[in-house]
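so i finally got all the pieces together for this one. its two components total, 747 residues if u count the protein bits. some of the lines might not be protein, just check the labels. i wanna see the whole assembly predicted at once instead of chain by chain like last time, that was a mess tbh
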Amino acid sequence: LDWSRELATCEPEYYRWNQWFFLRMLKAGIAYLKTGAVNWDPVDQTVLANEQVIDGRGWRTGAPVEKREIPMYYLRITAYAQELLDALSQMPGWPERVRTMQANWIGRSEGVNIGFPYTLAGEPKVMRVFTTRADTLMGVTFCAVAPEHPLALHAARDNAPLRDFLGQCRRGAATEADLATQEKRGMPTGLSVQHPVTGADVPVWVGNYVLMAYGEGAVMGVPAHDERDFEFATRYRLPIAPVIDVQGRPYDATKWQPWYEDHGRCVNSGSYDGLESAEAIERIASDLGGRGLAEKQTTWRLRDWGISRQRYWGCPIPIIHCDECGAVPVPEDQLPVVLPRDLVPDGSGNPLGRHAAFLACQCPACGKPARRETDTMDTFVDSSWYFLRFASSGNAESMVDGRAAYWMPVDQYIGGIEHAILHLLYSRFWVRAMDDLKIVNLREPFANLFTQGMVLNEVFFRKPATGRVEYFNPADVDLKLDAAGARIGAVLRADGQPVESGGVVTMSKSRNNGVDPQALVEQYGADTARLFTMFAAPPEQTLEWSDEGVQGAFRFMKRLWKAVHAHVSAGPAPALDPAALDAAQRDLRRQAHQTLAKVTDDIGRRRTFNTAIASVMELLNALARFTDGSEAGRAVTQEALEIAVMCLSPIVPHATHSLWGALGHERAIIDERWRTPDPRALEQALIEIVVQVNGKLRSRISVPAGADETQMRTAALADAHVQKFTAGLGIRKVIVVPGKLVNVVAA
RNA sequence: GCCCGAGUGGCGGAAUUGGUAGACGCAGUGGACUCAAAAUCCACCGCCCUUAAAAGCGUGUCGGUUCGACUCCGACCUCGGGCACCA
């Protein structure tokens, strides 16, 4: 460990480079200022993240959250969408799961941008929509625009009911999950557009299910082949026109069927009749393309990253607002803009806005009095490049230096799966932006990624007839078991009365089901706590917490300790002569080296610490049975104990440090080289192979290690059990897997 | 709704490339030691029939491929996670 590289992202020495690089991005157009819709808590006067909006209300104030348009700085991550997506397929060191999640999040979607012409105040105009199903164009019976769409705003100018409706949409459910389940509602704008093929009038509605931020903020409504359009059309009695035939199945417009969205063959589609969906999409795109009313288009789910936060604690955005010059970047030589430490957040709004000394400044452009930006950056900015700073620590002159080229990319990155999208996607983008601005030469920050699973725990509660649900920590609950050890109930230890179980879920304060590993550390020591945790399950897996098995880990540590000390109490072991061992000694030595090989692979490649521990447990069990006190026996024991201790040293470092010394080593085990198994120790004269008859295990036989197929086959057919099970049958085939098994196929 | 992942004894889990299902541990049962208990040690510990057995059954369900399937394929069920009106 090199503590000289330690850093804290809240120190000006670190976050000044956030500001510096932000200004670089601003200059390059990667950062930009835009007014966009956010969740706004009208009581706290702050923006809320989606996660902080519960049932449409602010998590602290309980006030209904509004959608508000406020100016924010954005980073143009969407400009990198294609390369961020493409690179995922060349990242074998990342888990498939994370790559899939990122690909879904980026959400590339190929379709056609289609124009619907209309006339407004005598001016010819075109309303554009994006669709992946241009083949259903002939089934359009309406169009719907988002409440924020210019056409909706225009129509609302002299339409009071529509204006009210747009207001309701703005105040409506705020979380995306709520939006998804919310009833589809809409209102006609009174405007209509022309169908680009038939020229027919198509009414334009405002729909609360249309997202301004995706595509064109407007959709063509094809109720026959889109579930949302179907729901909307049914509610407002709009016509439903089926235009796709899916394998001749009959269409019933009174009832939605999921297969209505399947691809098929065009019908009721004029000159497109008979075309397959894919062909129809191409034809429609090229036919309308000739008139400038269609264009193939790729759309992304990914949005630009809004980094402004109306929060005190964060890296100040280095901008000065001048009445004359607008938003002016803080000149580089005035960086960093330091966050004042002499104010106390009072829980409402951003206290920076009330800090006179922080606010007051001069416009760098014109020199007149101006006001400092009070928004701070999203803290994900800090975590997007800290690994580069570790590799360039102490450099006051530049953000990163040549040392980063040596250390990057990070060989092995470890984090919880909850970072699969946010942090890991932001970092990938940020590093590319740094590369493009010639600050570093790096396209991907993390060569190998390991994601631990989450630890879950059971929830216990009581629900009184009146009043609030009360949650109890699992540590305070006793399980009631029957004679066979099966669970029959749970009671609160304090009063012995039953509690209900709410299932096993992620740990949270609100459900009082967290655990503090400190209790285990105090009772058993840090090594046992570590051993137990790592033995419980492979680290990638979600784990249901239980400390039931911790006794076993503690017992194992005691057994290992006693085995080493019993061995060394008889004095130093003699040197090992591998050539002069009897069969039992050779067997133990082979097992020791097999264990070393397995643990090396389990820890180094597979990262399955649980199976590594299990194999050392097996070795210790073998050592317990091995009671050979001869010179050679003690030499083999010494080596086996050394291997056991070394194999466990990454997992239980304190105990193995002590045991390594007890085994007679001067050097600390942490400074020792990892051993490699002796190939000769792994050799075996005779091996046991499995013999099957018709795929069922019928016998085990011993053959020379190098036995070829013929020898194995002969030995297997000569076996008494095989003869018993094949008696009276003809032998049709014999399958031989060298070194493993023989399968006799008889009938 | 869509996309991932998982389903194996009473429990956590193992089986790495299609080749011995249940390693290792917990819990449990029996025994040794002890005045007794704890600790420790030994043995047993998937189901089923049995005096017994290398009999039969068995990896969520149903079907398929294969000499051979926990592993591959198809359909379904359940649970967990991610995304969630993305046109």
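The first helix of chain A runs from residue 12 to 28.
Residues 173-179 of chain A have pLDDT under 50 and may be disordered.
anyway lmk what u think
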